[in-house]
Specification:
Blueprint lengths: L1 H8 L15 E10 L10 E6 L5 E6 L5 E8 L1 E8 L6 E7 L5 E9 L25 E4 L11 H5 L5 E4 L2 E4 L5 E5 L23 E7 L13 E7 L6 E13 L18 E14 L2 E25 L4 E24 L4 E23 L6 E25 L6 E22 L4 E25 L2 E21 L12 E19 L3 E18 L9 E17 L4 E12 L3 H4 L10 E4 L7 E14 L2 E13 L2 E7 L6 E7 L2 E14 L4 E14 L2 E5 L5 E5 L2 E15 L4 E10 L2 E3 L2 E3 L2 E12 L4 E8 L7 E7 L2 E7 L5 E9 L1
Parallel strand pairs: 1-7, 11-13, 27-31
Antiparallel strand pairs: 1-4, 2-3, 2-5, 5-6, 8-12, 9-10, 12-13, 14-15, 14-44, 15-16, 16-17, 16-43, 17-18, 18-19, 19-20, 20-21, 21-22, 22-23, 23-24, 24-25, 25-26, 26-28, 28-29, 29-32, 30-31, 32-33, 33-36, 34-35, 36-37, 37-40, 38-39, 39-42, 40-41, 41-44, 42-43
Length: about 800
């Protein structure tokens, strides 16, 4: 019954945000020969005409080897006409679709007699949502309400995207693989996502969302892929862009502190200068992108009430005042050695300096007695260096190419924690130091062969990754820290993979079938003195198929279907053996015995192209085996709670997502996006080993949830544009509990100045200060309720200039 309700409601729920849409274009190529002698024919006239009215659109002549190329041909139906003296006119119907950037018509033979060849036409329409069947593309510059913020903040208004506890979710799932320029890097994580809140949106050109990745992509990330594209200008000569933005957050106190602790941050400043330079001449294109982001943030202001079965009640607050300095520098050079061979070299440097000052008081039930005050200072420096080299060989046929590349990433995590543990009878001083060095080598080889009705692609990927980690505890008087849980650990991972994809497209059919074969060997070595955990690891050889199908009913209506199988490999942080004390009594710990979760995903969709708009609706179903989740348990005679990653049993998600976009007038357009789904977590039993074995039995959970987004764009004048965005997130389940509903409204203005070269903006996020993260957790022997009033309301303003 609930599924029927979901299916019915799907068509009345709609979407937010302007999607960057553009007509797809392709290069058409082929070779002309004499039909009888098979001799190559140079200098033959090749013309492309409209199939509708025979109007001439594109033209060229064949080269000395009989080859021709027509570039930047938009999607549509055409007639290809080949003429030369002494030969009869040859015409073929040609269809340029949306799935391939290159069409190879192979050999076209013309004959000397007067008989004309029968026409052959291929048709297509260019979709508004995206030029591709598999992804949606969003321009960061179009998101006025989030200008001047981070990449993470710029994503929260995108259709199908939600933010939960600092993580991006696609269709309510945070197992998202994040790429930068198509590559995994330590900046955003090789396993689960990380660091998105510290990458300035000013450095980013666009964001691609791929809900159903093909076999070409790494199989990791069952929710899908987010690809962040850095800015890279290719205009001739010297050009660039400079900008600066600033702002203030936490404009007033949302919830007052508990007694006797240091003040929480208010009126927090932010500043983000950026510079983009590009030089292109002859065979060389060189570029530099530099960004600096300084923010003060009320990163956490969480109030928790813990209730134990013996009647004990503890009230606590966690205040985390954060200062962040984040610097990124990306530079590279593209060298077009000749028409067939191109080399590219690039480097990226990132430095993230974080200083956290935190207070965590613990009170009894009626707040009459402070039981404990835990104060901490975190000094963390993350350094990332990435170097890439790639080579592309173009064969004579357009779009027929071979790509090879190597990417090296080094990431250092250097953390120092200092704790002051204040109790009624004494004060203790504790600390620890964590040092982690991540070294990753990625090698890829990709081959693409365009066909008359699509393309074939295949390739090989290889990754070698190693992360040695060392943590040293320095306990003080009567220290509550488990100093024996320190020491060293070493994460080693090898992943070779092969893939092949075949893409086929006609005027009615879009299809893709692919297979990825992946081998993974992971070894996690633990120092032999650890009191709980031992060395562990896993390996597998698994196939990951993907299938896509599209049927064009007519020029305005289209049906799609998808299937893929993916995996979520635990990240190094998920299995890291060291307890994390940023919460003194709800302690997070990894699990070396954690195993990957495997997901099968199905989707059926419909798209309707409207006059100055579109409507899309999809129904999707995901089934996950070995669901990865944090499970909270306690140990006898203690109120400490340990959150440990575990593999629960099976979970499923069934939902519908719909988007309605419409330009109502020349000055007003809107997007409405809705996602309605039912999440189910089956019953499971796990045992947390740290610090002592504790078994938890989880009952079956099920809930219907969803989200609704509404984005309005107002063209107030030729140079002034405004946006109003609203988001509602319904309550949802998580293992052992649920999260509460959330709601926010954002505003933005952008004005073009200096004859289009300059731009100023002003925006405000969460203007009503309503975005509060709420959780309810129920475990054996205890439960707790938390509300986090972290900083969500921010006013920003900025200016940029192109030259």
């Amino acid at each position: 019954m609930k599924l029927k309700i979901i299916l019915v409601l799907s068509f009345i729920v709609f979407t937010i945000f302007n999607i960057s849409a553009q007509n797809n274009s392709a290069t058409i190529s082929g070779q002309v020969k004499d039909k009888t002698s098979k001799i190559i024919l140079p200098y033959v006239n090749v013309a492309l005409k409209s199939a509708k009215d025979q109007k001439f659109l594109f033209g060229t002549v064949t080269s000395e080897d009989g080859r021709f190329k027509l570039v930047a041909v938009p999607s549509g139906n055409y007639i290809l006409e080949i003429t030369t003296i002494g030969y009869k006119i040859n015409t073929q119907k040609v269809f340029v679709g949306t799935l391939s950037d290159f069409l190879d018509l192979n050999t076209i033979e013309i004959e000397e007699d007067i008989n004309a060849l029968e026409e052959v036409i291929v048709t297509s329409k260019s979709p508004e949502m995206s030029a591709k069947m598999d992804k949606k593309v969003f321009s960061v510059a179009d998101n006025i309400t989030q200008s001047g913020g981070s990449v993470l903040q710029s994503m929260q208004n995108l259709p199908g995207v939600t933010l939960n506890d600092g993580k991006v979710q696609l269709r309510s799932n945070d197992k998202v693989m994040v790429l930068i320029d198509g590559k995994q890097t330590a900046l955003t994580g090789f396993g689960n996502q990380s660091g998105l809140d510290n990458i300035p949106a000013s450095a980013i050109e666009k964001i691609e969302i791929i809900n159903n990745p093909s076999s070409k992509f790494d199989a990791n990330g069952n929710a899908g892929i987010i690809n962040i594209i850095y800015k890279k200008n290719k205009q001739e000569g010297f050009n660039g862009k400079v900008g600066i933005s600033s702002g203030y957050g936490a404009l007033w106190e949302r919830k007052a502190n508990l007694p006797t602790i240091r003040p929480q941050y208010q009126v927090t400043p932010k500043i983000n200068p950026s510079l983009s330079l590009n030089y292109r001449k002859n065979k060389i294109n060189a570029y530099v992108q530099a960004d600096y982001l300084y923010t003060e943030t009320l990163n956490k202001n969480e109030f928790v009430t813990r209730t134990y079965d013996d009647g004990t009640i503890i009230n606590q607050q966690t205040v985390r005042n954060r200062n962040t300095h984040f610097t990124t520098l990306k530079s590279g050079i593209d060298w077009n050695y000749n028409e067939n061979n191109t080399f590219a070299f690039s480097g990226l440097f990132g430095s993230e300096k974080i200083i956290d000052n935190g207070d965590e008081p613990f009170f009894n039930q009626d707040y009459s007695q402070r039981l404990r005050l835990w104060q901490f200072l975190e000094d963390e420096l993350k350094t990332t260096v990435m170097a890439s080299a790639s080579y592309e060989h173009k064969f004579k046929e357009a779009g027929h190419k071979l790509n090879a590349g190597i990417n090296y990433t080094y990431h250092r995590e250097d953390e120092k924690y200092f704790f002051t543990n204040i109790l009624p009878t004494f004060t203790g001083q504790d600390s620890f130091k964590l040092l982690s060095d991540e070294k990753v080598i990625d090698i890829n080889l990709d081959y693409i062969q365009p066909l008359k009705y699509g393309r074939f692609e295949t390739g090989f990927k290889f990754r070698n990754r190693e992360i040695p980690t060392n943590m040293q505890f320095f306990p003080g008087q009567n220290s509550p820290i488990d100093a024996n849980a320190g020491g060293w650990a070493n994460y080693k991972e090898i992943i070779p993979a092969l893939y092949s994809n075949y893409i086929f497209e006609t005027n009615k059919i879009e299809a893709e079938i692919g297979l990825r074969l992946e081998y993974v060997k992971l070894q996690y070595d633990v120092n032999p003195n650890h009191p709980t955990y031992k060395s562990d690891g896993y390996s597998y050889t698994e196939p990951f198929p993907s299938v896509r199908f599209g049927y064009k009913i007519n020029e305005k209506d289209k049906l799609t279907a998808f299937y893929n199988r993916r995996v979520d490999r635990p990240s190094e942080v998920d299995i890291r053996i060291f307890p994390k004390y940023d919460d003194a009594e709800i302690i997070k710990v990894g699990n070396p015995a954690l195993r990957p979760q495997f997901t099968s995903a199905f989707e059926v969709g419909y798209k309707k192209t409207l006059t100055k708009g579109y409507f899309t609706a999809v129904v999707y179903y995901r089934i996950i085996n070995g669901t990865i989740a944090r499970i909270a348990t306690t140990v006898p005679r203690s109120t400490l709670i340990y959150n440990v990653f575990q593999n629960a049993d099976e979970s499923t998600s069934t939902g519908v997502e719909a988007v309605f976009s419409k330009e109502v007038t020349s000055w007003y357009s809107f997007n409405v996006n809705g996602n309605l789904y039912q999440n189910t977590i089956d019953a499971f039993t796990v045992t947390n080993l740290y610090p002592v074995p504790s078994t938890y039995y989880g009952e079956r959970q099920q809930m219907v949830s969803g989200n609704l987004k509404w984005n309005n764009t107002l063209q107030l004048s030729k140079t002034l544009k405004g946006q109003v965005s609203a988001i509602y997130l319904a309550p949802d389940i998580i293992p052992q509990g649920k999260v509460g509903s959330r709601f926010s409204v954002d505003l933005g203005l952008k004005k073009t100045v200096q004859k289009g070269k300059g731009e100023v903006f002003l925006n405000a996020t969460d203007i009503f200060n309503t975005l509060v993260l709420q959780k309810k957790i129920k475990s054996e022997g205890f439960s707790y309720i938390s509300k986090d009033y972290y900083e969500t309301q921010v006013i920003r303003f900025g200016y940029s200039f192109k030259f």
